[in-house]
Amino acid sequence: MDIDLLRNETPGCSQVIHFNNAGAALVSKRTLQAQINCLKEEANYGSYETAANYSEQLSEFYNEVATLINASPNEIAFTESATVAWLRSFYAIGFKEGDEIICDQSSYASNYIAFLNAQNKFGVKIKIASEGKEGEVSLDDIEKLISDKTKLISITHIPTNNGLVNPAENIGDLASEKGILYQLDACQSAGQYPLDVKKLKCDFLSATGRKYMRGPRGTGFLYVKQEVIERFNPLNLDLHSAEWIDKTTFKARSDAKKFETWEHSIAGKLGLTEATRQINELGISNIWDRVVDVATYLRVELSQLEGIEVTDTGSLKSGIVTFQVPDKSHEEIKAHLSRHKFNTVIAVKSGTLIDMSSRNLDSVIRASIHYYNTNSEIDSFVSCLRNYLHSE
């Protein structure tokens, strides 16, 4: 990849040093322009009419995402966010009293709240798999937790507060062998890590557009395996996802678009299409190699700073780099970094309550790297941190 060219095609790279790609990455000029062109046409000619004019380009979304994750286009649904995608698949399953859900300790707050809601509403039981030696979810413990009542294994691929990569492919092998539904939250992995649903063997995979995909906010996608599409109807069925036949009958779609609703952002969808196309052109394996290289450099440099503790676990680590500064205010550190045009975020305990509590962490500073970030930016970042710590 030509990093200089990619940075020149990313307007934000000239304004800030952006280490918040796990929050929302910087969009490219081509992704931005796709949205602007659509919005201008909507303003000038009408939204319905513009959507009709862009019908071919809008259909390309399904092909690009399918290419990215090795799926069929009819297994892809466009959604307004990863949360929407995840919730629509989760509640489509149809839980009953006594059903069991197995999850990992790194489950994100929105997901675990849904588990608790299902526990309160339907009487399901939540089982939390322990961590292995390196911090990833233990495959052995998942297998021990499985019973004849296990309805779903729901795993976070890459946690929001940690650099680790959970062994999603191995979990998929186990779930497939046991005949258990497998839901994968790929919110932080889509766009940085190679995803192959054939190897993952997941039934559902959800992702957002705004993070490592480098797409617009308010966009996401859901993968649903074809066999599963035929088994479940989501709760969101409307005139787009189903056809009203007569007074007492409707017919749901036979593809993953049954998980969509009619209303969505046309400009956002076009923007995410362009962002996904760029990933496919660059090659997701090339992106992953670059992200790992740059993130590894950041971890090494941070670990050499006195007073900094890198908090990432896992034998395989992603572009999410987290650290803490004991006895210092993370809010003040973040504010200091912001004044020097470094974008970071603070991951707090309530976001991943079980994991953070188990590691005695109230918060961590998250510096998430993408392929357009450079070692030079990291040197400046580390120098800024060093100056802050020495000034105290």
Write a concise keyword list for the protein shown above.
single chain; 392 residues; Aspartate Aminotransferase, domain 1; Aspartate Aminotransferase, domain 2; seven-stranded mixed beta sheet; four-stranded antiparallel beta sheet; 15 helices; 42% helix; 17% strand; transaminase activity; transferase; PyrdxlP-dep_Trfase_small
Protein architecture, described:
This is Aminotransferase class V-fold PLP-dependent enzyme. By secondary structure, the chain is α/β, with parallel strands linked by helices. The protein folds into 2 domains: 3-26 and 284-391, Aspartate Aminotransferase, domain 1 (Alpha-Beta Complex), CATH 3.90.1150; 29-281, Aspartate Aminotransferase, domain 2 (3-Layer(aba) Sandwich), CATH 3.40.640.10. The chain contains 15 helices and 15 strands. It has helices spanning 3-8, 29-45, 47-53, 55-69, 82-92, 109-122, 139-145, 168-178, 197-200, 226-229, 266-282, 284-303, 330-339, 353-358, 375-391; strands at residues 17-18, 76-79, 100-104, 125-129, 150-156, 181-185, 204-208, 220-224, 242-246, 249-252, 309-310, 320-324, 342-343, 345-348, 363-368. The strands form 4 sheets. The protein has a 7-stranded mixed beta sheet with strand order 2-8-7-6-5-3-4, with helices on both faces. A 4-stranded antiparallel beta sheet has the order 11-12-15-14. It is globular. The mean pLDDT is 97.
